[in-house]
Backbone:
C-alpha cells in the first residue's frame, strides 16, 4: 500500500482450500460431459465447509486500524443446523468492526437472489450502513452466476442497503448490460478490479463517475500497479474524476 500511495483499503480473507487434483489433470483424464462433472466435483472440494476464519484480517487491521476497512466473506448456503451459528459468527465480527460483507457466487454456489435474502434482512436489521460486496459471475454451464436483473431485484427490495458490484466491467458486454440495468439505483456502486479499461469507461458514461469505485483484488488475482494504471490511463477523463474513482468515492461510501 505504501509503495503505491494507497492510503486505505478494504480487506477480506481468502479461501485457502487446496485442489486435490489439478483441473488440467482432470481434463486430460476424461472427455465431454464426464469431464464437466468431474471438474465440478473437484471444484466443490475447494468450497469451505463452514464460515472462513477472518483472524488474518483482524491481525492485519490491528497494524493500521485507521487504514483498513474489514469485510466478512460470508457463505449464505447453509444447512439448517449451521444457520444459527453462522449468523452468530457474523454478528460477532460486526461487533469487532467489520463494516461489510462479501459473497462469492462461484465458491459457494449461491442461487442469487434466493440464497441471500435472509442475509440481507439480517444486515438491514443489525445496521443498514453495512455494505454488501457481490462477486460478479456470468451464468455458465457450471455456475448459476448473477445477472444484472438479479442485482436490481435486491437493490429494489432493500433500498436502504448499499451494494457494490465487484468486477463490474470484466467484459465490455457485461459493462453495457449492468450499466443499463442498474443506472437508476442510487444504492448500487461498481468496482473496477479485473475489468476491461473500455468497460470502465463505458460505465462512467452510463452510471456516472461518482458510482465507480477503484478496486485491485490484490494480491490474489491482480496487482495494484495494473489496476491503478487502468484508471490513470482512461481516455478523455479528467484528473478530478480519476481522483474520485481512486479515492473519494470509496471513502465517502465507507466513512459512515
Residues:
Amino acid at each position: 500500500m505504501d509503495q503505491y500511495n494507497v492510503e486505505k483499503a478494504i480487506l477480506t480473507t481468502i479461501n485457502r482450500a487446496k485442489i486435490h487434483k489439478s483441473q488440467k489433470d482432470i481434463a486430460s483424464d476424461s472427455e465431454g460431459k464426464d469431464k464437466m462433472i468431474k471438474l465440478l466435483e473437484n471444484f466443490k472440494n475447494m468450497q469451505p465447509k463452514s464460515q472462513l476464519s477472518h483472524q488474518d484480517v483482524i491481525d492485519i487491521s490491528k497494524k493500521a486500524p485507521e487504514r483498513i476497512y474489514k469485510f466478512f466473506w460470508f457463505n449464505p448456503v447453509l444447512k439448517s443446523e449451521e444457520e444459527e451459528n453462522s449468523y452468530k459468527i457474523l454478528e460477532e465480527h460486526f461487533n469487532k468492526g467489520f463494516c461489510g460483507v462479501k459473497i462469492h457466487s462461484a465458491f459457494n454456489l449461491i442461487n442469487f437472489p434466493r440464497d441471500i435474502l435472509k442475509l440481507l434482512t439480517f444486515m438491514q436489521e443489525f445496521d443498514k450502513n453495512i455494505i454488501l460486496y457481490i462477486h460478479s459471475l456470468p451464468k455458465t454451464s457450471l455456475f448459476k452466476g448473477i445477472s444484472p436483473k438479479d442485482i436490481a431485484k435486491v437493490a429494489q427490495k432493500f433500498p436502504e442497503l448499499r451494494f457494490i458490484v465487484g468486477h463490474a466491467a470484466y467484459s465490455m458486454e457485461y459493462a453495457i448490460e449492468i450499466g443499463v440495468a442498474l443506472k437508476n439505483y442510487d444504492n448500487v456502486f461498481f468496482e473496477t478490479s479485473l475489468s476491461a479499461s473500455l468497460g470502465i469507461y463505458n460505465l462512467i458514461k452510463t452510471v456516472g463517475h461518482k458510482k465507480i469505485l477503484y478496486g485491485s483484488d490484490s494480491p490474489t488475482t491482480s496487482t495494484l500497479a495494473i489496476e491503478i494504471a487502468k484508471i490513470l490511463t482512461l481516455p478523455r477523463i479528467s484528473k478530478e474524476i480519476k481522483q474520485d474513482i481512486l479515492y473519494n468515492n470509496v471513502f465517502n461510501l465507507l466513512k459512515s
Notes: The beta strands are 9-11, 68-73, 100-104, 131-135, 162-166, 188-191, 212-213. DSSP finds ten helices and seven strands in the chain. The first helix runs from residue 23 to 29.
